[in-house]
Amino acid sequence: MLAYLIRRLLYALPILIGVNVITFALFFIVNTPDDMARMQLGVKRVTPEAIEKWKAERGYDLPLFWNERAEGAEKLTRTIFFTKSVRMFALDFGRADDGRDIAREIRMRMGPSLAIAVPVFVLGLFAAISFALLLVYFRASYLDFAGVVLCVAMMSVSSLFYIIGGQWLVAKVWHLVPISGYAGGLAAGKFIVLPVVISVFAGLGASARWYRTLFLEEAGKDYVRTARAKGLSERLVLFRHVLRNALIPILTGAVVLIPSLFMGSLLIEAFFGIPGLGSYTIDAINAQDFAVVRAMVFIGSALYIVGLLLTDISYTLADPRIRLQ
Amino acid sequence: MKFVLLWSDALFFLLVVTAIVGGLWARRIEHLRVSWRRVGQSRVAMAAATLLVAFVAVALLDSLHYRERLPGEGENYAVEVRSALDALLAGLRTRTEKTYSAPLATHSFAKETIEGEGRDFPRLKYGGAHLGDELGRHEMDIALRAVQGLALGLIAWLALWLAGAPLRRRATHLAWEAVFATLFALCLVSGVAAALAGGYHVLGTDKVGQDVLYLTLKSIRTGLLIGTLTTLIMLPAALFLGILAGYAGGWVDDVIQYLYTTLNSIPGVLLIAAAVLMMQVVIDTHPDWFATAAERADARLIALCAILGITSWTGLCRLLRGETLKLRELEYVQAARALGVSSLRILTRHILPNVMHIVMIAIVMDFSGLVLAEAVLSYVGIGVDPNTISFGTMINTARMELAREPMVWWSLASAFVFMFALVLAANLFADAVRDAFDPRGAR
């Protein structure tokens, strides 16, 4: 098991390096730092001096891969590739355009993101599984059919509609919660209720329908027929046999998402003014702050790879037939 | 008049031609024909397909672009690129008001200072202008026009019904009743809309006074393009790499797997954001590449499709690899290899036709997600060009208006309703296609 984990971690390294190279190529080779400077300073009427100053302030005035003018090992380290990309592996993300330390900003904003993302994840999973079980319990009836139609209809509605409509109805018309904003500690409660409910609702249709097919597939298997044949009630069959076995693919599918919860949700955080990582990313995109976007890409990929690793481990925990070697 | 072929137009026409050629090809292959017949027998699928065809027709009309010739001597053409749809809806496009007005309204939505009368709601320039001073007739007029529209729609539907009679007789196994029921609803709704649009703004006007109905109809093309071009762009790469990885195995397989795992591990939205930001820099630093604003917006649309394609081809590639791995070991492929058939021939004759159902399912399943994604991405600011009319840009400009008192709801509502119709139809059709093509469902 330990050997397996170490090997998997070693596999993850080339992937992270690949991600790093791709983002580097995207940000520095597709466009030269000069292009970015011109874009930031306004395309017309920009002097070469202004461009040089912009580049020097952000450390983009170095060569890409190989610094001829430096000494010894600095030939490699005093380059854009090393200072901007390789340093990310040491979790050194540099500074954003407004001069703030990105790593510190990320640490501060992780809390609010998690305060939304964790309840959404847990409640969403619970709601979707319950709804799917209900449909399976009444399978091949009009209730089941109506439920599936409802799921498809819910999937077809834009998530923007859920957010805009929910915010308008609950916060503006009914005045139940503040429209947007955030506060630390226990006061956060009233700010996160609405975003959580809306996110859970928006994701319900697709996941409930997907879980329903998983449950139905499981319910058609021989051991379920055996369970019924020996006289177990439908409820017992459903909860003790179908649910427990179908939970394996559901949980292992969900595990891969857990590390990514740190990243928060772009849309929800932007709409509700939550100072999390999602809104940080959106602000960076709108301000064209390349350093922040690059950092978020790197962290997002690293978390996803951790998620893949956790998935493999959860397989062995959930299903004793699987051995990792 | 000078015809303009934008890149997206060319690709869209190519897509339609591919679909038709693909359809003819599928007729020759037994199992594909059987599956498509099963789709055709499903009432839900046929109703959804009818709606989709209507949307595609609007998008095709909107893809025939031209530039008008300017009056005067010499070869001078207008800067604006218009489409056949613009020409058809010229009435809607040109009759712009000053600012917001509610659906079917005769007066503006905001009070203004009118000379000599103090502050009041001014009359609209076009909405209900034919009523003159007889404002009492407003409701009567709407009802009358609605009835006329219903009659018009009914006549149009009857004409379609009669024209469709030979079709119904030839292919009796298809669910024609669903097609004509959908057409019936479609004809009535568009009849009423057309009749009312003659004198009013059916869905109101937006902030700068543009007709919302016109904007929603224009949005359809953008949504469809994003939903289909993305798949078209990614398909060759996914097919080639997926089948190659599965068939060749060894280090080729390792490299391809590494490639898609790496791409897959970058969060989609962030990769799209980074790529769109970079693309925007390229477009902005090379203004000389594009003759008109439409071409620039078009380049961004294509770029967005390509980027979405890059982030979404990995799933299909993995599925194709798995299926090819399985097929490679089957007896008939082994037999072909033992008989000395070349690898290329095995791939094209024995593997490719047998993974086509996966491709078909992936295309239709991805479509609705992509249409929805366009709206979200445009909202975040990394979608289509802000000047391109799309559901996303409509929602983006309209969302601030909810805060007004009283509320401006019509542009948001129209965008959401049209998007819902399109995505629901696509979802239902996709379900039917998956049920028909998935061998696990064919028990």
Structural write-up:
The complex is a heterodimer of chains A (325) and B (443). With 325 residues, chain A is an all-alpha fold. In chain A, 71% of the residues lie in helices and 0% in strands. Chain A folds into two domains: 89 residues, no CATH class; 216 residues, MetI-like fold (Orthogonal Bundle). Chain A contains 14 helices and no strands. Chain A is globular, with a radius of gyration of 25 Å. With 443 residues, chain B is mostly helical. Chain B has a domain of 220 residues: MetI-like fold. In chain B, β4 and β5 form a beta hairpin. Chain B is globular, with a radius of gyration of 25 Å. Classes of the chains: A mainly alpha (325), B mainly alpha (443). Chains A and B meet through α1, α2, α7, α8 and α12 of A and α10, α11, α14 and α16 of B.
Describe the SSE topology.
The complex is a heterodimer of chains A (325) and B (443).
Chain A: H1 2-29, H2 33-41, H3 48-58, H4 74-77, H5 80-85, H6 102-137, H7 142-156, H8 159-173, H9 189-219, H10 222-229, H11 234-255, H12 266-272, H13 277-287, H14 290-318
Helix pairs in contact in A: 1-14, 2-3, 6-7, 6-9, 7-9, 8-9, 9-11, 10-11, 11-14, 12-13, 13-14
Chain B: E1 2-4, H1 7-28, H2 30-41, H3 43-61, E2 65-67, E3 82-83, H4 84-88, H5 90-94, E4 112-114, E5 118-120, H6 138-163, H7 165-170, H8 176-197, H9 212-248, H10 250-265, H11 268-285, H12 293-328, H13 331-338, H14 343-380, H15 391-398, H16 410-437
Antiparallel strand pairs in B: 1-2, 2-3, 4-5
Helix pairs in contact in B: 1-9, 2-16, 3-8, 3-9, 3-16, 6-8, 9-10, 9-12, 9-14, 9-16, 10-12, 11-12, 12-14, 13-14, 14-15, 14-16, 15-16
